[in-house]
Please model this.
Amino acid sequence: MTIQEKLPGGRREMTGTQSIRRSFAIVRHLAGASQEGEKLVDIANAMELPHPTAHRILKALEDEGIVERAEGTQRYRLAAETAWLGVAPFNRCPITRYASPHLDELVAQTGSSVLLSVPSHIDSVYADRRIGNLPSLLSQAEIGSRRPLGAGTGGRVMLAHMSPERLDSVLEQNAARYAQYRAGPETVRRDVAEARAQGFLVGNSPLSREGRVVAVAVRDVTGRAIGAISLVGPRSQGFERRIEGLLPQMRGAAREIAARIQQQRVTMRCQMPIPPRAAAG
Amino acid sequence: MTIQEKLPGGRREMTGTQSIRRSFAIVRHLAGASQEGEKLVDIANAMELPHPTAHRILKALEDEGIVERAEGTQRYRLAAETAWLGVAPFNRCPITRYASPHLDELVAQTGSSVLLSVPSHIDSVYADRRIGNLPSLLSQAEIGSRRPLGAGTGGRVMLAHMSPERLDSVLEQNAARYAQYRAGPETVRRDVAEARAQGFLVGNSPLSREGRVVAVAVRDVTGRAIGAISLVGPRSQGFERRIEGLLPQMRGAAREIAARIQQQRVTMRCQMPIPPRAAAG
DNA sequence: CCGCCGCTGTCCGGAATGTGGAAAGCGGCC
DNA sequence: GGCCGCTTTCCACATTCCGGACAGCGGCGG
Model:
């Protein structure tokens, strides 16, 4: 089976790096997977790769130290190495470090759960969190877990403060993935516009039916989103009414975090470049 | 030029993943490079790759979001993405988080600079630090910067509490690199033995001639090293005499950090697998 | 006990992918 | 203008990677 057959419009991009891209796609996939790791077959299926190919790549990743087998089982998961590779970049933009006290304060004063999200490639990652009075609302929001950027309220608020090119690119690439969050590119684009207009966004938690979410963006000096703070509360009149009052504090936290990052000696571009669209199918 | 010509003893390993390994070697290299990034040619030279090859790989890494061009220049450096990929593994072993207050305490009470190192592949990485009275001693120890595991005192202390296989593998692979730190595998092995025997190690700072270093290992529940705490002081009688007195506090800090990590719900293997030796030359 | 099943790991012929020498931009400096 | 250092593109070649087929392995049920 040749592949050259495809490429209808003669589009020919991202050539000569197939295996590298595949390996990073696997890393990204595992980054969002559960702590217990994933079986080879599941990874292969998720990546739409034949088992032997996935196996070969994972073996390479394993002895590069990027991936390890969860104890007892044969399941693959990311190893600590992955964290240490990111130490230097993290210290140029230590958003979790500076956000930490603000998250503490928010959960203490509101009782709602708090999430800190950051954009990674075309995903939104939970970088940190605090659990409030209703832990059930957060059941799926493990630290490090991922969703398509734009699926959740935090993601939409971040998209609202990204370059138009990046917004388009993300929406295009995530279009199919939105379905399982009962959304589509249009829904997302509408909320993004709203978030941009009012400076925050209220939405439903796609994780649990009863959750309601308020999110504001954390923006760097250029105005670009480098993260989002979300408060998660119950679907109740009480919470809905309090939202208005919560906003100033959330905005203040976002501003202070951004300011502290800005103070750092090395100014860094915290936002990502525009992810390239996938090859023509 | 065929490569098949080599392989004297018929050794044939790590096949079918050349480009993946190369790309991660580049990532590792950049992880240790300076904030300002590196030029294409320098990367290519360091990796012993032809420029076009390095270029192709870097381009792939760039639109995977792993690498970015430093603002203004064309230099390559790791992007924030790298940090977010590591969020989940980091939260299984958040050594910097738990170490932070202990580092504060150590620098406050001793006035010496403090370093937290972690093992990454065959390197030692500075995961965090506190600057004491003599900042000059730390000039080269940026957070995220790397040295061959075993080149410094912290690295030797970590090696002292790793599996014999891993020790051998690291020594073999780093043998050549030790030269520029005025050491060799034998020197390292001797210090490793000493560190294992006495539970700590005193050595010279390879970074600045005048520095003197005391290091203890942070060990997980199985006894394996997951990091090292180092105190850096001047080459003076005064500092030398105080070392004895500093040890209990350092040991205490190491134990408490390990204990807190242990308390976490998910027990994790913090140490790395044995890195494979390079292909036969 | 043996066959079945789901999964992991290995083999190997074939070709697409990755390679790297050569050369073309590109900007700065003398 | 010519030189120089660096980045980027090109393209023919063959090495690296691909993936179907199969072997191995442990658990389960008949």
